[in-house]
Specification:
Blueprint (H helix, E strand, L loop, with lengths): L8 H4 L9 H8 L3 E5 L4 E3 L7 E7 L2 E6 L5 E7 L4 E2 L1 H6 L6 E4 L3 E7 H10 L1 H13 L8 H13 L1 H6 L9 H12 L10 E7 L2 H22 L10 E6 L2 E6 L4 H16 L3 E6 L5 E6 L3 E7 L7 H17 L5 E3 L2
Parallel strand pairs: 14-15
Antiparallel strand pairs: 1-8, 2-7, 3-6, 3-8, 4-5, 4-7, 9-11, 9-14, 10-11, 12-13
């Protein structure tokens, strides 16, 4: 087994993480994907969309720009511990240079989507990351405070509304699908094992019939609130619609996915959910309900190599779970 990137001295002492505690450092690295490039291999080209930033673990990377006459000029050499590509995802702009591995090179990759997850899930960590980035960009020194405040404010409002579900605070279908496709389409040599779980609540219509949609919404919100106790930092939970949920579990085997699915099922089954709402006469009604759930599990590459294929496989397994009596976890065939 290869050495963990957490033990890499260049990474530990990188200026990107210099001000972080060990706990904060571990929280960031949970979002990183390791990738290998051979000597001479292109990492990205000038003008391409920028959706990832890179942290150099081992090897050497050179950045060049096109001078317009067919010639290229080297503008920077990156050594282990350095990072590059961050401005394209911060500004949502094309790459300003071409980066190439000049020897066999290992990097850690932070997806742009995960960069924004850090901003509103771990705002203090994100602030430290942005501060580290701003310190090495002299052109930003006079306006770094305004930039950081504006970016954090934007990340907590516009981006939050665009990628989250207003009722539960979970991610929405769009973010989950984009994140899943981004991970599966990565160009690393080693394909990652990614699990997808689909869930819906058993007989939620009975609660809606008895207590109205407001009661059903309280149940959905309470169920969603318990997911974080089961899921890991890098896992993604989303509400698709109504009482339907989906989960993306990076670097997860089938056995691990089944185990997490069973823990989610048990967590929901063990909930006692208080409801507080008004009846048809306007009287306040306080009661408690419980609910159970079914889950379908699919894992790449066994059940599919694309986002739509994995979601369809997990959804088919979910339907079988319902057919077999509900309150259970079923693996895709």
């Amino acid at each position: 087994m290869g050495k963990s990137p957490l033990d890499n001295e260049a990474l530990i002492h990188s200026p990107l993480f210099a001000s972080m505690s060990e706990l904060e450092f571990n929280a960031v690295t949970a979002f990183l994907e390791r990738r290998h490039y051979k000597k001479g291999e292109l990492i990205f080209s000038e003008g391409e969309p920028g959706r990832e930033m890179f942290i150099l673990l081992t090897g050497h990377v050179v950045a060049t720009v096109n001078l317009g006459d067919g010639k290229r000029r080297k503008i920077y050499d990156f050594e282990p511990g350095a990072y590059f590509g961050e401005m394209a995802i911060i500004e949502d702009a094309p790459r300003s240079a071409t980066c190439t591995a000049t020897e066999d090179t290992d990097v850690l990759v932070l997806q742009g989507l995960d960069f924004y997850r850090l901003i509103f899930e771990h705002p203090m960590i994100a602030l430290k990351l942005l501060s580290a980035i701003s310190q090495v960009m002299t052109s930003w020194l006079d306006e770094s405070s305004r930039f950081l405040n504006d970016l954090l404010r934007w990340g907590e409002t516009a981006r939050l509304r665009a990628i989250t579900d207003s009722l539960t605070g979970l991610y929405n279908r769009r973010f989950l699908e984009e994140s899943l496709n981004s991970r599966l389409e990565g160009n690393g040599e080693v394909k990652r094992s990614i699990a997808v779980l689909m869930m819906d609540l058993d007989r939620i219509h009975e609660i809606n019939n008895a207590y109205g949609e407001a009661g059903g919404d309280q149940v959905i919100k309470a169920v969603a609130g318990g997911f974080r106790q089961v899921l890991r930092d890098a896992d993604i939970a989303a509400r698709l619609a109504g009482d339907e949920f989906a989960f993306v579990l990076p670097d997860t085997t089938l056995q691990e996915a089944q185990h997490i699915g069973e823990r989610l099922r048990a967590a929901v089954a063990n909930l006692t959910i208080p409801l507080s709402l008004k009846d048809k006469l306007g009287e306040l009604l306080n009661t408690k309900v419980s609910i159970k759930t079914c889950l379908g599990v699919a894992v790449s590459p066994q059940h599919g190599n694309t986002g739509p294929a994995l979601l369809a496989a997990a959804d088919a397994a979910l339907k079988k779970a319902k057919e077999r009596g509900r309150n259970r976890v079923v693996v895709a065939e």
